[in-house]
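Sorry to interrupt, but I need a hand with the structure work. Could you write out one complete protein record for me, on any chain you like? Could you add the entry underneath, on a fresh line?
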Amino acid sequence: MKKYLIILLTFGMLFVTGCGNSSGTLTCTKTEMSEDGYSTNTTMVVTYADKIVTKVEQTSIEEMEADFVDTSIYFSQLLAESLNEVDGYNITFEKENDMAVRIVTTIDYTVLDSEKIKETLGSSYKEDALYSLSNITIEDFKETQLDGYTCK
């Protein structure tokens, strides 16, 4: 009888509290090849609490012709200057090697100033981009943002 009571209580607790993690970190990776044969390796680390995404750090290493690396970094940093003034948003561009650029984008949704992002980007603002996903559940994030990624 005790055995059945313990089993019943265990299942009862799982039912009441839920059986999935409501907080944690998800790490996902993806590799894409361009038509020119250059690869982009992306890692996305998604932090969530109470099933709501609170922070995303996306690191991409993009291969390109060596002649374009420095120019790409220069022009990208011009855009990054204004975006990095937005609370909760940070993007950096660095030379990974002679043929690749490392791009690290960090978005902290707990402090992100969504209105300032809209203002900064103007007509370039996109409703489905990472910076516009505040208050998204981890399940919705997986469905909308992690297609083609391998997650653990």
